[in-house]
Amino acid sequence: MGRLFNPPETKGLWSATDRTLTVFVGEEVFIGYEGPEAAKGDARFSASERGSGEYAREVYREGAMRLTVKVDTPRPMTLGFEATDGNGRSIAAPIVIKVRTRPDHREVKAVGQMDSNACWAACLQWWLAAMPDRERLDQLGLIGRATGMAFRNGTLDPAQLDRLVARNKFGMATRRPKGDKALTEHFGRWPMLIGFKSPGGFSHINVIHGHDAKTGAIHVMEPWYPDPVLVANHLDTIDDGNGPPVYIWIDGWNGHAQNETYKFNGAHVTRTFAYYTTRPMAGNEFWVGFPEEYVAKF
To answer: Residue 179, SS3?
Structure first.
């Protein structure tokens, strides 16, 4: 008997419980096979919907005993994927491929960071709300969970974020890719938190949650919105070194009360990949966090 496996090109969510790979309409999906039948040229593959239709289209040789099968994903459906020999006998444990319409995460209300350094908490709050089967926590709850990890000003560095996520079992895999090429390997594992250097020069976190293949645009949840730079002449900054800096209104511009705390509302925005790939943090490093189902292997 051989085995099926998911190659790196396949950005699918794997459930070992029911041997199901969930992928999304229109995305390229490849299933790998490793076994003696590959060497003999005696392997056959089928991806069908209850025996109807055939969506296993092309087979590529990747080595003496390894093959890769391309599976079409034109519409929502559930496919049974099987590998057999020339006599119709099974040569690997079958899997189920669920093809689903990718959720439009713009329907999940954006979250504004509660203070100038809480971007990580706002993004985690939004991510937990957007993902199924996750614990729901607001920013205060997340900041409480980070007690003893965060710096005095309320920020977290990548190592601290790794510990926070692992300790709380958020169902998130984290990585620290170095350089733009390593970062792009994770694109498609939406929704994905990304730590980068903002145009303002400080480390920041957003959530990338969708991609328009036709236009190249990506959909992002930005917690630093509206940008206070746009109204800087109406704001003052209070920073006593014992917590995050606070922006306050210094006049009654646009209906705000004097000394009222500036509020970030958060927003869904559209950007390009280059907005992130060209802005690594210190050491040419990014930080990413995405659903752990993407790295589960079969």
So the answer is: coil
Residues 195-201: contacts with CB under 8 Å, at least 24 apart: 195/120, 195/158, 195/161, 195/281, 195/286, 195/287, 195/288, 196/276, 196/279, 196/280, 196/281, 196/286, 197/279, 197/280, 197/281, 198/224, 198/279, 199/279, 200/229
User: CB neighbours of 41 closer than 8 A, spacing ≥ 6?
Assistant: none
* Full residue range of the structural domain in which residue 177 is found: 105-225+264-294
Residues of the chain below pLDDT 50 = none
Tell which residue, 137, 140, 138, 175, has the closest CA to residue 158: 175
Please give the model's pTM, rounded to 2 decimal places. Answer: 0.90
Q: What is the pLDDT of residue 9?
A: 87
Q: Tokens standing for 5?
A: 């496996």
Q: Are residues 40 and 131 in the same domain?
A: no
